[in-house]
């Protein structure tokens, strides 16, 4: 049965872990004494995982969105202080507390759709102090909400104004020192980069990855989003957890990540916002058995989206992913993209984090547009 769907199922939970799952007729006697909750025939899935977000940032870019729709050119937007630079400026000005307060409503929107794990990147500081502040803010979210936060250091996200003409020096003087300082404080779960003509070259990313390897940290990469620089192949050489965006990934790149066991993270929110026309190579990924994940890419520029359910719908409608692939993309494959083995499926020993839905069939999660059928979330999340 696709989805491994079980009618009239029961799940036994002990010590916040799944102790047993199967048909309720087969529930072993030893669980009879546990307190019971009836879900009245509702559908249960693993709780959702958003494995790629930039949810911590200062300010917003609504004004520039409006400017562009009123006919302003990219240059005019940039000259009036718009674009990623404006987010960097606003993020540097914000305190840790302000960054957390600004992020919480976005976090709440995700939690309301059954998400219990969110990956959060740095990358709008681009100086040592602000990169650290962003990661501290990300970790602090766990003190305010019942959610598990996984961090990625993204110092190599964009070239700050004062390093425009010498981005190599940025890698040496800011990015790698910031990574080391963040690691020392326990703020880094993985190391990410943006490998692109408008950002960093494969050679520069490689230096960041070498630094990550020395610290024993896993890597992932924004690769092949706007062009094909061979970022995915480089990431595969470092056994990357994931390569993300990948609209311009070709078959050689797909082969490389299939060998390294790297997850392909599909981000339809950015594709949609940028009105991209190059589709990620879903069929090639399928043929080479590369597991696919789906995420919001929540960020103020290319994906101001907080709905993982909408990302599922877009993955299906824009990219022809199947609803089954979409659900795996926000559960088990999203867990793998974060290197997590204790969540993402309903299996004995995993964290008891379940989403309960007012639907009959799992395809309804991807089929609806802008409708939230979450009934409740079960299970206390533990870090
Ligand atoms: N790829 C993107 O689409 C965003 N970052 C990245 O690496 C853009 C971020 C922004 O415009 O604020
Ligand atoms: Fe991103």
Architecture overview:
This protein has 383 residues and is of the alpha/beta class. The protein is 38% helix and 17% strand. The protein has 15 helices and 13 strands. The chain has helices at 62-69, 74-79, 84-93, 96-111, 128-144, 167-184, 202-214, 231-237, 251-260, 268-273, 282-287, 308-319, 323-329, 332-337, 363-367, and strands spanning 9-14, 17-23, 43-46, 48-50, 115-121, 148-156, 190-195, 220-223, 242-245, 263-266, 292-294, 354-357, 374-378. The chain has an 8-stranded parallel beta sheet. Helix 9 (251-260) links the parallel strand 9 (242-245) and strand 10 (263-266). The longest helix has 18 residues, at 167-184. The protein is globular, with a radius of gyration of 21 Å. It starts with 8 loop residues before the first strand and ends in a 5-residue tail after the last strand. Bound molecules: 3-[(4S)-2,5-dioxoimidazolidin-4-yl]propanoic acid (DI6) and fe (iii) ion (FE). The site of 3-[(4S)-2,5-dioxoimidazolidin-4-yl]propanoic acid (DI6) has 11 residues, from helix 3.
List keywords for this structure.
383 residues; alpha/beta; eight-stranded parallel β-sheet; three-stranded antiparallel β-sheet; 15 helices; 17% strand; binds 3-[(4S)-2,5-dioxoimidazolidin-4-yl]propanoic acid; binds fe (iii) ion
Provide a concise account of the structure shown:
The protein has 383 residues and is of the alpha/beta class. Helices cover 38% and strands 17% of the residues. It has helices at 62-69, 74-79, 84-93, 96-111, 128-144, 167-184, 202-214, 231-237, 251-260, 268-273, 282-287, 308-319, 323-329, 332-337, 363-367, and strands at residues 9-14, 17-23, 43-46, 48-50, 115-121, 148-156, 190-195, 220-223, 242-245, 263-266, 292-294, 354-357, 374-378.
